[in-house]
UniProtKB/TrEMBL annotation:
Xref: Gene3D superfamilies: 3.30.230.10, GHMP kinase, C-terminal domain
Keyword annotations: ATP-binding, Isoprene biosynthesis, Kinase, Nucleotide-binding, Transferase
Active-site residue numbers: 18, 145
GO biological process terms held by the UniProt record: isopentenyl diphosphate biosynthetic process, methylerythritol 4-phosphate pathway; terpenoid biosynthetic process
Catalyzed reactions: 4-CDP-2-C-methyl-D-erythritol + ATP = 4-CDP-2-C-methyl-D-erythritol 2-phosphate + ADP + H(+)
Underlying gene: ispE
Similarity section: Belongs to the GHMP kinase family. IspE subfamily.
E.C. number: 2.7.1.148
Signal peptide coordinates: none
HAMAP family named in the record: IspE
Lineage top rank: taxon: Bacteria
Residue stretches making up the GHMP kinase C-terminal domain: 211-284
Name of the protein in its database record: 4-diphosphocytidyl-2-C-methyl-D-erythritol kinase
Pathway note: Isoprenoid biosynthesis; isopentenyl diphosphate biosynthesis via DXP pathway; isopentenyl diphosphate from 1-deoxy-D-xylulose 5-phosphate: step 3/6
Length: 314
């Protein structure tokens, strides 16, 4: 057996999408963000982020929506990799290859997932062994959803969403996601939320007792009833047809449905595989959704995919 010439070192990290089971939005802060009380759940829709040493910093994207993702310095994965390099004093550029399954601008934190993937992959490639809390700190500086993409599972987010706390959550849930053709910009949805609430007193955000009880019980029906998203009226205002998608879910037996994060993806929790299939077929036939996928949650956060670090030729 001989080493291929040149030996190619690469690290691949698989990172899940998220859905916000609960998203309570507080008042607009002076820094332009909103304080949140949110419950994140990681679901089994994944992007794969591969990094390898290269002459220059670069990123390539594959997958059906690759054309929607910036391939320059604006790419969140590239920003994350450079940020870690700067923090660790690394001067070795990497080429990043992203395979996207998570919808772009879909409210499922796809860009955040790629940033978390790049942080973990570069940490492994460069052998840094960065302490977890330091990686989480960097993640939070890159975007509010990035720390959760690292962590996965089910967790409560506070601050602007970047401060995570564990939550007692039982059970595994089946999800059906209805995708939209047109993404929604996260800042635009928050701005629309502010516009719709103008003149109203907005209290500091608190997780609801109904959600905490549902999570403790592991009861999918209770969880379905407790789903709540304060950004939903704003997303519906910007994309009114999402209302029909939500209605179709309840007609087909979903236990609950809501707009995922800032939308426009709609997430349904379903009792079993039969309802999942019925709903997926109904959504596809209705022409209301650009795509439909089934997933389960909670799943792990960002993880290195085991594999050879050196390509060998036998
Ligand atoms: C909608 C959610 O996905 C729910 O988890 C997140 O709040 C969005 O998180 P994200 O995409 O990581 O957002 P960031 O990149 O941190 O912020 C993008 C923009 O969203 C708005 N933003 C975000 C988070 C937050 N708590 N309040 C906000 O108002 C701000 O306009 C901000 O400039
Ligand atoms: N690696 C990336 N993947 C996807 N989008 C990226 C990436 N890097 C930068 N972006 C930009 O970020 C924008 C938002 O994309 P993203 O898929 O993260 O939205 P989202 O899932 O709605 O985000 P969130 O749920 O965190 O609010 C895209 O329109 C794109 O211009």
């Amino acid at each position: 057996m001989s080493l291929a010439v040149p030996p190619s070192r690469s690290v691949t990290v698989r990172v899940p999408a998220k859905v916000n089971l609960e998203l309570i939005v507080g008042p607009l802060r002076p820094d332009g963000f909103h304080d949140l009380a949110t419950v994140y759940q990681a679901v089994s829709l994944y992007d794969d982020v591969t990094v390898r040493p290269a002459d220059d910093w670069s990123v390539t994207v594959s997958g059906a929506e690759a054309h929607l993702v910036p391939d320059g310095g604006d790419n969140l994965a590239l920003r994350a990799a450079r940020r870690l390099a700067e923090a660790a004093g690394i001067e070795e550029p990497v080429g990043i290859a992203i395979h996207k399954e998570i919808p772009v601008a879909g409210g499922m934190a796809g860009g955040s997932a790629d940033a978390a993937g790049a942080l973990l992959a570069c940490d492994a490639l460069w052998g840094l062994g960065t302490p977890r809390h330091a990686l989480e700190q960097l993640a939070g500086e890159i975007g509010s959803d990035v720390p959760f993409a690292l962590a996965g599972g089910t967790a409560v987010g506070s601050g602007r969403g970047e401060q995570l706390a564990p939550v007692l959550a039982r059970g595994s849930y089946q999800w059906v996601f209805a995708f939209s053709d047109n993404g929604l910009s996260t800042p635009r949805v928050y701005a629309e939320c502010d516009r719709l609430r103008e003149g109203r007193d907005v209290p500091p955000p608190q997780p609801t007792a109904a959600m905490m009880t549902a999570l403790r019980s592991g009861d999918a029906a209770a969880l379905g009833k407790a789903l709540v998203n304060d950004l939903q009226p704003a997303a519906l205002s910007l994309q009114p047809q999402l209302r029909e998608v939500l209605e179709l879910g309840s007609e087909c037996g979903a236990l609950g449905g809501l707009v995922s994060g800032s939308g426009p993806t709609v997430a349904f929790i379903v009792p079993d595989a039969e309802v999942a299939l019925d709903l997926a077929v109904a959504l596809a036939a209705s022409g209301l959704a650009a795509g439909v996928k089934r997933a389960t949650g909670p799943v792990h956060g960002a993880q290195v995919v085991p594999g050879p670090s050196v390509t060998r030729v036998d």
